[in-house]
Amino acid sequence: MSIEDIKKTAEQKMARSLEVFRNELQKIRTGRPHPGILDQVQVEYYGSMVPVGQVANVTLLDARTLSVQPWEKGMGPKIEKAIRESDLGLNPSAQGDLLRVPMPPLTEERRRDLTKVARNASEDARIAVRGVRRDANEHAKRLLKDKQISEDEERRSLDELQRLTDRTIAEIDRLTAAKEAEIMAV
């Protein structure tokens, strides 16, 4: 494995960590609803647990209400129960086949709790990025030890990996700050 391979692998892994972090942030509820909020809710479908989006059409009815339209007749009560039992604090109501999921306004205390959740996800992402950097640094040091690269090349690669890490962590911080501002906006 060459220095270029190490850097390319580290860059790909950091990009994946960043993408996972973005997905985690999308799951955190803000004041306005979006259909993706129900992606984490699992419902039993023929013996296996699947996300709500795979058994129903989730759309936005208005500024405060989601609509869940099951694709099969018998799935309505199961989806309603799954949404009710999820940790999202939502209370769906059935209207025939259609489920209406009103989004209650967030209290100040709940907003603070959600910012803590965002910060924890941010810290997990930073830890993942630093782990990638550590592994890449170890690979570079191993190449130096095996005399496949010079000390200058090793130093340069460590500096480039640090710059890549700094850029990725700055992006994580930017996304976290944006999410916190979105959560705290009334």
UniProtKB/TrEMBL annotation:
Responsible for the release of ribosomes from messenger RNA at the termination of protein biosynthesis. May increase the efficiency of translation by recycling ribosomes from one round of translation to another. It is found in: Cytoplasm. It comes from Piscinibacter koreensis. Belongs to the RRF family. One of its GO terms (cellular component) is cytosol. This is Ribosome-recycling factor. One of its GO terms (molecular function) is ribosomal large subunit binding. InterPro entries: Ribosome_recyc_fac, Ribosome_recyc_fac_dom, RRF_sf. Pfam families: RRF.
